[in-house]
């Protein structure tokens, strides 16, 4: 393949290509179906019906009731809203003010906790174990009679590590503590049943599952105390005012429908791709690297760290090298990758800043191919020669 530059997109945890069926379904709602869903005339009513059908699709997908689904603008808001909304409401009703999360959460969770800390909440942030996940005993040891909310990521966006949310909920359930999970990476890729998981709220974002950007959702179990996120409108049952992104909601529902149909097949395909990638790396000339959270059962993310004792790690230069060769990868969370800071997730897993600066995340979709992996490994071999100390 020497000399030929392939275009390889291995940044599907940052965002995915819109599914053609999603695009088709959205077009009428950017065009002739322009009614405001809050209007009482036929233009509006038609759009309202479509939105409520989309809500049913989303609810059914995770075994929830449509009244438990709130459409919001993205995964970031889908974390901000329940974390702030639950913590503040519980505090106003009971004065419980202790909230718990982990060190490897997405910034939208960590910064919600920071905000609550400024408001006087007592924040506990727990470490993950060597398996990259939260340990049940550590979590249990942190919980007290003052704990109102625990928020833990389901599938980590940088490592693919999977927290056993169902297990955590078992001992949280009878303690009057709310459990939120950031399911932005897992939603649409693996089966989610909110009842089985025993959670009170969950976040998801359409653009991670071949839907449009700018639309997310919150599941909040009936009865969950949840103050509004956006004031000034009665939309989303008074909890999230503002005229809905109609085409986005319709696109999200279609992305869910296609994900549902293709989930098993996509998972198996991506699993084969990830295993092929790992085998390929192991048989290549690459040395002095580690695969982070290698045992994770989630195949969509592969995180590689180059050992800084051997390499002049510089994530920006490494990603540029790959980009020049047509390969799109990431150094971690896409939302912060513009700044290319060493990842807090990788460092909180015990790696040095220098190692974190040599960490590259490859994230897959069912659109990727074996040929792309062969090509990428070839380029990684060249990259490591260039960056060797
Ligand atoms: C785990 C996780 N949570 C939240 C978000 C934020 O989602 P959005 O980009 O839709 O705001 C992301 C985005 O990368 C994510 O990976």
TrEMBL record:
Phylogenetic lineage: unclassified sequences, metagenomes, ecological metagenomes
Enzyme class: transferase
EC number(s) stated in the UniProt entry for this protein: 2.8.1.7
Organism: hydrocarbon metagenome
Family to which this protein belongs: Belongs to the class-V pyridoxal-phosphate-dependent aminotransferase family. NifS/IscS subfamily.
Keyword S-adenosyl-L-methionine among record annotations: no
Record protein name field: Cysteine desulfurase
Cofactor(s) needed: pyridoxal 5'-phosphate
GO MF: cysteine desulfurase activity; iron-sulfur cluster binding; metal ion binding
Aminotransferase class V domain residues: 8-375
InterPro entries, alphabetized: Aminotrans_V_dom (IPR000192), Cysteine_dSase (IPR016454), PyrdxlP-dep_Trfase (IPR015424), PyrdxlP-dep_Trfase_major (IPR015421), PyrdxlP-dep_Trfase_small (IPR015422)
Gene3D superfamilies (UniProt xref): 1.10.260.50, Aspartate Aminotransferase, domain 1, Type I PLP-dependent aspartate aminotransferase-like (Major domain)
Metal-binding listed as a keyword: yes
Keyword line: Iron, Iron-sulfur, Metal-binding, Pyridoxal phosphate, Transferase
